[in-house]
Amino acid sequence: MEELIRTNDLVTISFVEALLKDADIGYLVADQAISAVEGSIGLFPRRVLVLAEDLEEARALMRDADLGHELRPEKKR
Fold first, then answer.
1. Alpha helices in the chain (DSSP H)
2. Rounded to 5 degrees, what angle do the CA atoms 24, 26, 28 make?
3. Pairing between β-strand 27-30 and β-strand 2-7 as defined by DSSP bridges
4. If one looks up domain 2-70 in CATH, what number appears?
5. Are the beta carbons of 58 and 50 closer than 8 angstroms?
6. Which residues of the chain have pLDDT under 50?
7. What is the CA radius of gyration of the chain?
8. What is the pTM of this model?
C-alpha cells in the first residue's frame, strides 16, 4: 500500500475516507490505535493508505477536492 496523506486533522481524514469510499477506492487508515497510547491528544498523525494501482486515481481525486496540499510527495520510481 502507498501513503496518500498523513494528518492529525480528523475532519480531513473523515472527508478523505468519504471521497475514497464514493470512488470505490479501497483504503486503510493506519496509526489509529496510537491515539490510545498518546491519550487521544492528536499528537501522532494518522496515515491514509491506498493500493499502489489506485494511487494515481486517489491523488487526482484529492486534487479535485482541493486537498492537493495534503498529499504526500510522490516517490521517484
1. 10-22, 34-38, 55-64
2. 145
3. unpaired
4. 3.30.70.790
5. yes
6. none
7. 12
8. 0.85
